[in-house]
Recover the amino acids of this structure.
């Protein structure tokens, strides 16, 4: 008892039980007196009706055993009925007043109800009658459940509750109820039949049905929840058993009470419905027993076996239910009710014993509380189910009690899983944080190590590929110097990784000695000098003579300086990085700060200065540097206002500072351009737009050794400036994550002036998802590469883009040459023949025509293949020369009309774009017509486009010929037009539009941008 008083859960269960018992006692003892039927008649003369009145029609009913009589037959029969107590079973002598009856059989009940309210809407509610019945009211069949019959073969069992509604016109009612039972051990009217106002009975029925549906929904949700937990989380069998318990309880609810299953599924077979009902009733008990013994595995083997006996018997009975008909397994049903109740009692006692003694084993306290609640729920339902049958206890009370119990269970369940969820959230946050740190560390490490490693590989490959006969000592030394500097950087990165592990383990060892800052800073500027020049950064040293020597670990100090300088170079461009060393009492201050580069002061004045403090806090390299400085007895600090980093270290006073030479303190500036690095044969110029130092170093080393001219830009303004300078690169490599304006916007700006052929763009991206690829292509990029950069992939894509650009140029030139080759030999013969004939008849005219022919050939053959666009005036000159020759040939048969806007003579067109159209109109249109015709040429400007129309009134074409003339499969019909079509596509122009009518001529229209 002490444990129960201290445990809030057990105290709550006890209080709920006492409260429930009090409600049941009050309902049983507080019921008002109701009239009772006597000798087949129920007299309501002295009963006061109210709007909430529901009268149980209990008492003595007339009963005609072994006869199924209609009301009319009862009035005509002379058989004297026996009196049968309702509710009651046929085989009880007290109920049937000693008449010898069997539990199985059939018969007819009859009751007269007098003094009922007239002119009111009333209802009669029938609950359980075993096992088929039909109800007549005042001689009319009102409803039935199943089909009563005189034999097992002729009747159909159902046992479904129903309510009949009627309107009274007289004060007396006659109720006749036919009943048959050939399945259960005892038959008859099992529960009270009730009479009352229709609204009240309907309200009660709706409340009961609603409560049952609501309870079923809740337990189904609980069942699915536990089933989900079993499948998705940890496959714990206890979760599966909980799921089976709640799903079984849902079946119990839907097959009892108002028996909603029979109402919702009228066609469901009787055997199947009752197999579901009783398999759930006894199967849930087996599941509860399995949960109990899983959560409470204690007790001895002998005691355990005896306590498990009820659940074993129930499991065997469930098997019997599934394989045998109702009349077989129902014969021992009363005995199994007792076994079922005993099984719950045993389970409740065992689990309560373990809970009180706190024998939780591997399970949690909450799991035992859940099980106690489940068993208590079933015990309460059993007790209330018996009370509802034996005493006038409302079914609504049973449903409301179940709701309260489920609410308590839900609160307990929510409490348990909220606690588990909170714990999981905390663990998830810790794991996410650790995973993020790990990913960032691995990403940084892979980038930092991959870049110098690839640089070393490609520099070495470049050296191996150099012919020994053409050895250039300066070039080889320069490449070896790059290899050495890159190796230094890689070694420092590895040292950083090792040091981070040593800091964590607390076993970092430092060898402090005298260190010369001149040699240290010289080595740092030499190793990182080429990176600095790539970003337009000039490095200078200003050392005081007395601040040359410090007490530190030389290798660790170099590691610190490498990290600091590399970090500052990565955050700035076009600045002057100054190393200052000054003596302050017994310590030396090493200050790294930026000064404005004189050539970039104006531009940099508009930029926002970076926050060095945030950079310091977010850099792994600087974290290692701070730890190393601290171990060496110094201090590292950041001043974001002055854009400087300061190191304080102990001074080495006995290092012989008088030997410091003047050259150690002189200013030294490294002003090497990346163009000064070896570049091989400089086959193509590549512009790289990025601020990532790792990518910059990698690409510079890789592409320079391949013979490309490399230049860098760190903003969209610088890219636009370089493109506007007139020295157009062959390829642009753009970082998609370019600061300020993204690489996508930079590419869009490039595409406003240059096509994908004129200036290919290769993107550097972090990922290769479909969304990233779409963004690159949509912005106008030709191709993309992803980080970490792979040297082989970079070279393949660069060479591919440059090769494609070269092939497109060659194709354009070849197309120009092909068009010129399209001059038909017979045109030359005809032109020369015409000129020869004129020499005999009209010499001066022959000379003029020969001049036109010469001008035509000169223009045609002297067009520069490298010239993609020419003025329209030049194209018109070619057309006029051609027309003069053809007009002389065809004389009056050919008329030419030229309507050209002379303000367009300066606009640019592709060579031989319009002349083939005029030539086709003459050769295929007018010349084939006996009377000849007219060719008209119109050239106008329509907004920002130029429209060219060539029209003739020649022989024309059929619709089929017009549709196929541009088809390459019919190349012999229109090579000239196909060339025009391809060239217009290259200029982003409109494809030729052909309108032709046979016998009336042809009209061809083209459009291209005005430029």
């Amino acid at each position: 008892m002490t444990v129960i008083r201290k445990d809030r859960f057990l105290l709550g269960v006890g209080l709920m039980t006492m409260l429930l018992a009090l409600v049941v006692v009050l309902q049983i003892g507080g019921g008002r007196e109701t009239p009772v039927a006597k000798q087949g008649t129920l007299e309501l003369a002295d009963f006061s009706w109210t709007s909430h009145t529901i009268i149980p029609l209990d008492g003595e009913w007339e009963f005609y055993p072994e006869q199924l009589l209609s009301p009319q037959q009862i009035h005509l029969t002379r058989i004297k009925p026996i009196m049968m107590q309702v509710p009651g079973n046929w085989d009880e002598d007290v109920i049937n007043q000693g008449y010898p009856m069997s539990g199985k059989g059939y018969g007819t009940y009859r009751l007269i109800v007098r003094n009922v309210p007239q002119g009111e809407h009333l209802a009669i509610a029938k609950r359980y009658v075993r096992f088929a019945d039909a109800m007549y009211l005042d001689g009319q069949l009102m409803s039935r459940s199943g089909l009563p019959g005189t034999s097992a073969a002729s009747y159909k069992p159902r046992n479904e509750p129903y309510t009949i509604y009627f309107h009274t016109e007289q004060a007396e009612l006659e109720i006749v109820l036919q009943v048959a039972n050939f399945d259960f051990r005892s038959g008859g009217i099992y529960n009270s039949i009730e009479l009352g106002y229709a609204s009240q009975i309907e309200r009660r029925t709706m409340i009961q049905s609603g409560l049952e549906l609501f309870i079923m929904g809740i337990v189904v949700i609980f069942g699915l929840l536990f089933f989900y937990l079993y499948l998705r989380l940890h496959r714990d069998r206890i979760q599966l058993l909980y799921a089976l318990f709640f799903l079984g309880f849902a079946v119990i609810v839907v097959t009892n009470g108002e028996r909603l299953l029979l109402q919702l599924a009228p066609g469901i077979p009787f055997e199947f419905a009752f197999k579901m009902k009783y398999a759930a009733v006894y199967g849930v008990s087996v599941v509860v027993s399995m949960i109990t013994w899983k959560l409470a595995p204690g007790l001895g083997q002998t005691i355990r076996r005896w306590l498990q006996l009820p659940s074993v018997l129930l499991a065997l009975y469930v098997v019997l239910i599934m394989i045998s008909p109702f009349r077989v397994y129902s014969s021992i049903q009363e005995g199994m009710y007792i076994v079922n109740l005993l099984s719950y009692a045993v389970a409740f006692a065992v689990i309560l014993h373990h809970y009180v003694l706190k024998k939780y084993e591997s399970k949690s306290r909450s799991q035992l509380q859940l099980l106690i609640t489940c068993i208590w729920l079933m015990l309460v339902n059993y007790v209330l189910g018996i009370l509802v049958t034996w005493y006038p206890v409302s079914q609504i009370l049973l449903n409301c009690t179940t709701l309260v119990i489920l609410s308590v269970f839900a609160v307990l369940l929510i409490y348990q899983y909220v606690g588990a969820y909170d714990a999981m959230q905390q663990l998830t946050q810790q794991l996410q944080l650790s995973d993020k740190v790990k990913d960032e560390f691995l990403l940084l490490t892979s980038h930092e190590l991959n870049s110098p490693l690839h640089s070393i590989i490609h520099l070495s490959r470049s050296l191996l590929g150099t012919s020994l006969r053409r050895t250039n000592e300066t070039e080889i030394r320069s490449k070896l110097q790059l290899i050495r500097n890159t190796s230094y950087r890689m070694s420092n990165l590895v040292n950083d990784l090792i040091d981070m592990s040593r800091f964590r383990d607390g076993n970092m060892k430092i060898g402090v000695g005298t260190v010369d800052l001149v040699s240290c800073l010289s080595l740092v500027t030499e190793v990182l000098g080429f990176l600095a020049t790539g970003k337009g950064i000039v490095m200078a040293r200003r050392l005081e003579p007395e601040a040359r020597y410090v007490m530190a670990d030389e290798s660790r100090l170099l590691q610190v300086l490498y990290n600091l300088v590399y970090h500052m170079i990565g955050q700035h461009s076009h600045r002057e990085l100054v190393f200052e060393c000054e003596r302050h009492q017994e310590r030396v201050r090493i200050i790294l700060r930026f000064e404005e580069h004189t050539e970039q002061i104006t531009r940099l004045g508009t930029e926002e200065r970076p926050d060095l403090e945030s950079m310091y806090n977010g850099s792994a390299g600087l974290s290692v540097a701070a730890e190393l400085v601290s171990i060496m007895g110094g201090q590292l600090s950041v001043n974001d206002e002055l854009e400087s980093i300061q190191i304080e270290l102990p001074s080495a006073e006995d290092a012989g500072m008088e030997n410091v030479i003047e050259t150690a303190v002189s200013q030294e500036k490294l002003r090497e351009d990346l163009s000064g690095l070896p570049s091989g044969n400089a086959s193509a110029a590549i512009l790289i737009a990025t601020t990532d130092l790792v990518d910059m170093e990698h690409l510079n080393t890789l592409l320079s050794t391949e013979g490309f001219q490399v230049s860098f830009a760190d903003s969209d303004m610088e890219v636009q400036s370089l493109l506007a300078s007139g020295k157009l690169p062959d390829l642009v490599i753009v970082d998609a994550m370019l600061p300020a304006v993204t690489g996508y916007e930079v590419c869009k700006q490039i595409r406003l002036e240059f096509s994908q052929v004129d200036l290919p763009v290769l993107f550097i991206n972090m990922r290769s998802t479909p969304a990233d690829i779409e963004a690159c292509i949509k912005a106008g990029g030709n191709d993309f590469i992803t980080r970490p950069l792979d040297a082989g992939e970079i070279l393949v894509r660069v060479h591919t883009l440059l090769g494609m650009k070269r092939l497109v140029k060659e194709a354009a030139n070849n197309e120009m040459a092909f068009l010129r080759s399209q001059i038909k030999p017979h045109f030359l013969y005809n032109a020369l023949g015409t000129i020869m004939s004129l020499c005999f008849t009209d010499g001066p005219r022959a000379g003029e025509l020969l001049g036109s022919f010469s001008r035509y050939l000169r223009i045609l053959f002297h067009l520069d293949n490298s010239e993609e666009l020419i003025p329209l005036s030049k194209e018109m000159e070619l057309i006029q020369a051609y027309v003069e020759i053809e007009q002389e040939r065809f004389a009056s048969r050919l008329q030419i009309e030229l309507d050209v806007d002379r303000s367009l003579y300066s606009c640019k067109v592709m060579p031989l774009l319009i002349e083939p159209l005029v030539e086709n109109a003459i050769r295929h249109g007018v010349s084939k017509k006996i009377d000849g015709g007219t060719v008209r040429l119109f050239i106008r400007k329509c907004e920002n486009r130029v429209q060219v129309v060539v029209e003739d009134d020649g022989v024309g074409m059929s619709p089929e010929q017009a549709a196929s003339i541009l088809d390459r499969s019919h190349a012999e019909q229109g090579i000239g037009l196909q060339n025009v079509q391809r060239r217009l596509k290259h200029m982003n122009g409109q494809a030729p539009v052909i309108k032709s009518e046979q016998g009336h001529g042809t009209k061809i229209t083209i459009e291209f941008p005005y430029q």
